[in-house]
């Protein structure tokens, strides 16, 4: 039997469970299912009908305000006025594709590349993170001459045919590609409880590098040349594993020694979210060969990018002309430039670092005596709360995690779950999240914990 998708099915509405819903929600959900088909998913037992957003807040059709502790795509805040104004101005002037000269895309490219390591000196634009990862894999394969790709065991990297086959979080009904291998998530919380790993000691970085090396060897044993290790540096879908600082570096050394490239999927950890660095990979002291980005770079406007070392891109670019019709169009570029400007002008990286530290401390304080909360980990405004059956076994408790999510939703706080067990609360609010918002969230979270059995 196929396993369900951890990222799509765990915290999802069941279309058949409509008897207790308000009439307006029931009717809209039924109409949606009829015209959009069965693959789409809604959140929560009672779906939320949203009509407006502002900062870190969302409003439903009845005017009820919700605190958004989940939507990282609206990176600088829902409907940020500077992003909205930039889109409006450019939409009123011109919107066309990249086969005409336009100064804004060159200006933005230079600005964006200025945030990256010097070795990464070229960038290509697309519309979605899935497309960016798809292109990065093609570039890596052209550069290395190989086809083998390694990802983590609960990774999500996109929904194209190529990237779906590299996204085990979609469940086993979506098969992995023939030349794809997986390594376990770097779950230091559970590895520490299990004791020293054979040959790896207690060093998470060495252990993880050994896992990557083993899968490279397996590819070679099957006659498949290794091309790339594709990972996001916060391991978001795997359960949020950002630490210790630098633990990813030994694995990247293994990748390079084997002739492969490192593709840093920065759709989630990039653009100042981790607080400690502008890019998630920087926390590990590594320089990727390819960097992919997604819609957070445009605050939700469809834009994505793949940045590259010029020598890595050359094998693909010199032989294959690539054209993404409206990737990097002037309106999307205007949104992306506004996001970069807002991050700098509003000092959102420092804000993310400061407020994230406060969130970690607050969560640990209100959870200190509750056995369901096994671990709290994160960096900046990206935090995972690991819900367990008991602190000794550290066994994932999906039922309790979902109950927490639903009870937060009843208190008008929105979040969801991740991880192989579907038991890790994924907290990644817009960077506009404020100290007052944090107080609201911690109050709601403490109230919810008090309603759970101890």
Automatic annotation (TrEMBL):
Gene3D superfamilies assigned: Aspartate Aminotransferase, domain 1, Type I PLP-dependent aspartate aminotransferase-like (Major domain)
InterPro entries associated with the record: Aminotrans_3, Aminotrans_3_PPA_site, PyrdxlP-dep_Trfase, PyrdxlP-dep_Trfase_major, PyrdxlP-dep_Trfase_small
Name listed for the protein in its UniProt record: Aspartate aminotransferase family protein
Keyword Phosphoprotein: no
Transferase in keyword set: yes
Family label: Belongs to the class-III pyridoxal-phosphate-dependent aminotransferase family.
PANTHER family on file: ALANINE--GLYOXYLATE AMINOTRANSFERASE 2-LIKE (PTHR45688:SF13), PTHR45688
Lineage top rank: taxon: Bacteria
GO MF annotation, one: transaminase activity
Keywords: Aminotransferase, Pyridoxal phosphate, Transferase
């Amino acid at each position: 039997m196929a396993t369900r998708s951890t990222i799509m099915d765990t915290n999802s509405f069941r279309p058949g469970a409509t008897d207790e819903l308000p009439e307006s929600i029931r009717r809209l959900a039924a109409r949606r299912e009829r015209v959009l088909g069965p693959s789409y998913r809604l959140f929560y037992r009672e779906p939320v009908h949203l009509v407006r957003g502002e900062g870190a807040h969302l409003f439903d059709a009845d005017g009820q305000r919700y605190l958004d502790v989940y939507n990282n795509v609206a990176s600088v805040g829902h409907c940020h006025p500077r992003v909205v104004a930039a889109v409006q101005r450019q939409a009123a002037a011109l919107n066309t594709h990249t086969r005409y000269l336009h100064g804004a895309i060159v200006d933005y490219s230079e600005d964006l590349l200025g945030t990256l390591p010097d070795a990464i000196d070229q960038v290509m634009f697309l519309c979605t993170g899935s497309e960016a990862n798809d292109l990065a894999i093609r570039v890596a394969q052209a550069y290395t001459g190989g086809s083998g790709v390694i990802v983590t065991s609960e990774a999500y990297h996109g929904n194209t045919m190529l990237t779906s086959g590299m996204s085990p979080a979609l469940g086993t009904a979506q098969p992995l590609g023939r030349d794809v291998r997986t390594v376990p998530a770097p779950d230091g919380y559970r590895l520490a409880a299990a004791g020293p790993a054979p040959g790896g000691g207690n060093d998470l970085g060495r252990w993880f590098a050994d896992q990557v090396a083993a899968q490279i060897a397996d590819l070679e044993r099957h006659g498949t040349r290794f091309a790339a290790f594709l990972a996001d540096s916060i391991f978001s879908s795997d359960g949020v594993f950002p630490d210790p600082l630098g633990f990813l570096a030994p694995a990247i050394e293994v990748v390079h020694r084997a002739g492969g490239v490192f593709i840093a999927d920065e759709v989630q950890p990039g653009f100042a979210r981790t607080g400690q660095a502008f890019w998630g990979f920087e926390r590990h002291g590594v320089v990727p060969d390819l960097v992919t980005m997604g819609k957070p770079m445009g605050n939700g406007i469809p834009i994505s990018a793949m940045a590259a070392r010029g020598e890595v891109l050359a094998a693909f670019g010199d032989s294959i002309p690539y054209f993404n019709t409206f990737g990097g169009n002037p309106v999307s570029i205007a949104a992306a430039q506004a996001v970069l400007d807002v991050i700098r002008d509003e000092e959102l990286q420092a804000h993310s670092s400061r407020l994230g530290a406060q969130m970690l401390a607050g969560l640990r304080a209100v959870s200190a005596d509750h056995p369901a909360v096994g671990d709290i980990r994160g960096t900046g405004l990206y935090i995972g709360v690991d819900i367990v059956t008991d602190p000794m076994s550290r066994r994932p408790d999906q039922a309790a995690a979902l109950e927490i999510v639903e009870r937060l939703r009843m208190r008008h706080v929105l979040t969801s779950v991740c991880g192989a067990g579907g038991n890790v609360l994924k907290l990644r609010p817009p960077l506009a999240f404020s100290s007052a918002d944090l107080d609201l969230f911690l109050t709601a979270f403490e109230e919810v914990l008090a309603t759970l059995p101890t």
